[in-house]
Amino acid sequence: MKTRMVIHTFLLISFTLSVTVAQTMKRGRNEGTANISASNVESNGNILISAGMQGDYGGTGLSVDPGASLTAGIADIMQLSGRALMENFVNLGLVDMHLQLTTPGNDHLRFFGFGITGDLFLSTKMDTVSANVNTDKPDYHSYIRGSMVCDLDWIAINKQLPLKTYWSFGMADNPDLLYLYDQISIKSGLEWKMYNHSFFTDIGYGLYKEKKHQDFSGDKRYLQKTLWIEPGARYRISGKFSLLSSLRVVLLQKVKQRNPLSPDYLKFSTSLVIPLIYRETNTEAIRTLVFLEQQKEHKKDIVAKNIQEGKKLKTDFEMSLEQIDKNGNDNAEDEKAQMKRREEIQIKMDEIETLLEELDNENK
Predict the structure, then answer these.
(1) 101 with 144: CB under 8 angstroms?
(2) How far is 165 from 33, CA to CA, in rounded Å?
(3) pTM, 2 dp
(4) Contact assessment for residue 224 and residue 208, using Cβ atoms and an 8 Å cutoff
(5) Per residue in 110-150, pLDDT tens?
């Protein structure tokens, strides 16, 4: 009951703050996919919150876990984030914290980026099987693990290719099972980053090695494996908020006969990301300029095309007039056709004039 009150209070305060500061916020891009954070961090002083839920269907049935997270930029190369989930809206679930460091200069639009993260997982699963556990008084554990990520931002070398690729390596594929298994997690992602929205696909490969416990000496190597794919999208609302949704499907799972890994067939997640305090990062400011420049070039191409079409119409019109003069044919039908030609030319010229005025206004 106390846990539920804390979560409700946190969400209420977050919503109130978001409404209060919404008028002063700049566009937030919130880079990364559903499973992989970008190597570059939030700028110093930026604070983001998110609220949502995740659910999975597997060998233990269906579970839906709501939760909230907070991310704060505490230096130009450092950020701190935390998350808390509830199991099926009832009990406190996974709680984790992450301290991410990146390389200097990674706050600009660059091709290669790299970051490392220290991960702290607070287990809320009751441990009743570990070798040293007291069965009369089950214990809860915390685990410190590490991970790293690198990404390639292809728009930095080709302005027509708004693609970002991610690779991640960590030691926690399913944090809820850290008390049972040593784990290795390998992930890769593709993100098509348009001016406002983005689409992504993650693929992950997890390896599990069962730890020693009271009835088993433990596995000597990683015998159980799982492979999954997770497409999703980020939809931006008013340039400030973003709605992130994805669906994971297991492609392959290898388990052993003794104490097999419980399979998870489907997993979905959705969250609303709200910037409480946000200064647009250098990376996203430059990315915005790239998109605006592309829009301007596109408009110039349209103007040039319309001018060419206008010249062609005018030439055709003049040729038809010469033909009429030669043949002396000035009946009502020909006059009607020429009037239609004049109207088409005038419409084209008006379109060209409007586009030129828009370009002049942008240059001012």
Answers:
(1) no
(2) 10
(3) 0.71
(4) yes
(5) 899 999 999 999 877 777 666 666 656 667 788 999 999 99
Q: Kindly give the parts of the chain with pLDDT less than 50.
A: 1-3, 5-7, 9-28
Are 90 and 66 contacting, i.e. CB atoms less than 8 angstroms apart? no
Q: CA–CA separation, 164 vs 113, rounded Å?
A: 11
Closest of 315, 318, 314, 316 to residue 348, by C-alpha? 314
Phi, psi of 331 (to 5 degrees): -70, 175
Residue type, 175: P
Query: What does each C-alpha distance from 192 to 195, 281, 353 come to in angstroms?
Result: 10, 19, 35
Contact call for residues 199 and 191 (beta carbons, < 8 A)? yes
The Cα–Cα gap between 314 and 103 comes to 59
Nearest-angstrom CA–CA distance, 10 and 119: 23
Residue 155 carries which side chain, given as an amino acid letter?
I
Question: Structural domain boundaries of the chain?
Answer: 2-279, 291-363
**For the chain, how far is it from start to end, CA to CA, in angstroms?**
59
- Token pair, residue 5, equals 């009150």
**Percent of residues in the chain assigned helix, strand, coil, to nearest 5:** 30, 45, 30
b (16+ CB within 10 A) / e for 3-20: eeeebeeeeeebeeebee
Strands 91-102 and 78-87: antiparallel
Distance CA 320, CA 326 (A): 10
Dist. CA 303–CA 124, nearest whole Å: 62
Residue that has been written with the tokens 């399979």 in this structure? 263
Residue with tokens 């027509």: 160
| Cα 42–Cα 20–Cα 5 angle in degrees, nearest 5 | 85
What class does CATH assign to 2-279? Answer: mainly beta
- How far is residue 283's CA from residue 294's CA, in Å, rounded to a whole number? 17
